Amino acid sequence: MQTTGKKVIALDFDDVVAHFNAHFVVFHNKRYGTDLAYENLYLYDNWELMYGCDRETMALRAHEFYNSREHQEIKPVPGALEAITHLSQNYSLQIVTSRPEHIRDVTLNWINEFFPVHFEKIHFTNGFMGAAGSIIKKKSEVCREIGATVIIDDAIKHVKDVAASGLPALLFDRPWNREEIPSGIHRMHSWQEIVDWIKMNA
């Protein structure tokens, strides 16, 4: 349900608002001696091939990063601050992130530094490295609950899920999502493209 008279836009957090992977690969290379490059992160969930470890080890490394100084030094995605400031004047912007609930405080600290008044709500779905036993919600389910009119995300599996429910989905172009996309999904290469699309369609 919408909580204001404004149309609701759902936004993913990592690599849509915060430039997560660009900073994580630097952290991972320094800490674990790897030689990863952001542009070569072409497999979304294949931890063994991309990072040389299994999912459990990757979860530990991700949480180490969440609690590091480097995490708080993540910068917004280029163009995000200006675009989100502009959109927040006319839309209810709500974060729908796969991040686990137990790193809410770390996430909110970052948001409050760069986007203190821009987002109406933050929804954690526990889809990425959530604690054992945590309840995982589909982003399409959250979008339905909040009455979203469009979602912006970088993960193919999430935009496919949302688009299948009949909601338009904007796929933020990243190295790991450069594959053919079905109808209902629109590939965006910048925040300016996103703003232009929303002006015309949302």
From TrEMBL:
GO function term, MF aspect, one: 5'-nucleotidase activity
Alphabetical GO biological process terms: deoxyribonucleotide catabolic process
Residues spanning the signal sequence: none
Residues annotated as the enzyme's active site: D12 (nucleophile), D14 (proton donor)
Similarity remark: Belongs to the 5'(3')-deoxyribonucleotidase family.
Stated name of the protein: Nucleotidase
Organism this protein belongs to: Candidatus Kaiserbacteria bacterium RIFCSPHIGHO2_01_FULL_46_22
